[in-house]
């Protein structure tokens, strides 16, 4: 009978929702940064004890990596939504404006998670690699869309899509830093307008020769 009870206990489902717990952890890291977040901060927000945290998510760094993956997934969805059925310019404008809304939403900790949470001394090689990978994936996605814009004659053929993507990725992260510093939404939206004024002029259509 004892063995049966032990088996039942081991087989019982967990008493917490892993997805919600992970989102709660992400928001703590987002608000306090990696260094500023303690294990008690995490267990309180996640509604679990320390043994459950370790058993389900691993140590603090492993948990942080999972929250970065969760945020990257959310950012990817924002990217797809922004560029769906849109020109490259329209999509870039939407992306930056949606980012401003996200960074200044009072329901969120403020700013960009990836900039806030990974800005700490002594960051491990694994986390550096992961952050670089996420930024690189974002950069590549933008460049790929801009390459298509050249093929569709939305952008001039002499434009460096790599440089253009670097510019707008930098604007994106800069908006997050400014939002974290207290900049108002209206001010950041004006920055977006200024950034979009730098969009390369569309190539002119070839003139038809009248005979």
Sum this structure up briefly.
The chain has 211 residues and is mostly helical.
Overview of the structural elements:
- With 211 residues, the chain is mainly α.
- Helices cover 71% and strands 0% of the residues.
- The chain is built from ten helices and no strands.
List keywords for this structure.
disordered C terminus, elongated, 71% helix, disordered N terminus, 211 residues, mainly alpha
Report how far the terminal alpha carbons are from each other: 100 Å
CA radius of gyration is 22 Å
Beta-strand percentage? under 5%
Q: Helix and strand string, N-terminal first?
A: HHHHHHHHHH
Poorly predicted spans = 1-13, 206-211
What's the number of extended β-strand segments?
0
Helical run tally: 10
Q: Mind sketching the topology for me?
A:
Blueprint: H1 2-11, H2 18-36, H3 39-46, H4 50-57, H5 60-83, H6 88-104, H7 113-117, H8 125-151, H9 161-180, H10 185-196
Helix pairs in contact: 2-3, 2-5, 5-6, 5-8, 6-9, 6-10, 8-9, 9-10
